[in-house]
Amino acid sequence: MLTGEGLWFRYAPQLPWVVQSQSLTVKPGEVVGLMAPSGFGKTTLAKLLAGYLMPTQGGVSVDEQPLPARRYCPVQLVFQNPELAVNPRWRIDQILREGHPPQMHQLDALGIHPGWLSRYPHELSGGELQRIAIARTLNPQTRYLIADEMTAMLDANTQALIWQAVLAYTRSHQIGVLVVSHDWPLMRRLCDRILDLAATQDHRTLISQ
Ligand SMILES: Nc1ncnc2c1ncn2[C@@H]1O[C@H](COP(=O)(O)OP(=O)(O)OP(=O)(O)O)[C@@H](O)[C@H]1O
Q1: Does ligand 1 lie within 6 Å of residue 184's CB atom?
Q2: Entry's SUPFAM superfamilies (predicted)?
Q3: What percent of the chain has pLDDT over 90?
């Protein structure tokens, strides 16, 4: 289970707390939504859970083990800007081979064209590059996926195709997913339950199950 326990975070000692006393869990294979108004700290919380930021207080663990400092992180974060997540000097096939090489049928399910593999990131559109960023996370070492506005830049059809492929993979591999989005209909469609961060900073509110 992915657990964030009593998390507190602020970007500098003189700045206000962005995350205050937040706790949440995601079970293997579960799809949990996270919603709150803009600027409330969803992305910050996502970064804490994926080990991009260290909490000031509290801790993040997977099966009661803290996130590894050096090894591949079992909690992978895909955010809205794929160009920030890939090495601009590497060709796409090298980016994909960096971790555990994805299988052709997986690439196909995500709508990744074989012709893209020899290109550089700047030679793909934002939506095309996002599929590469997603494909890279769907590997046997990933236990939890945090999707922070992951498909916000895609048209409705592509969004549906991508989520279908991602959920088919995460369900069959028992990967837990945390979906961060402002798109309420999308959250209702995808998620087993939805947490509202704004409802309280102190305890979780179950909006739907
Ligand atoms: N690197 C940073 N340094 C200082 N403050 C930051 C930094 N990143 C974010 N913040 C602030 O932290 C707060 C929470 O930001 P965050 O991006 O986590 O919110 P969010 O809920 O994901 O917002 P949105 O829905 O608009 O993406 C905001 O007030 C933001 O200005």
Answers
A1: no
A2: P-loop containing nucleoside triphosphate hydrolases
A3: 84
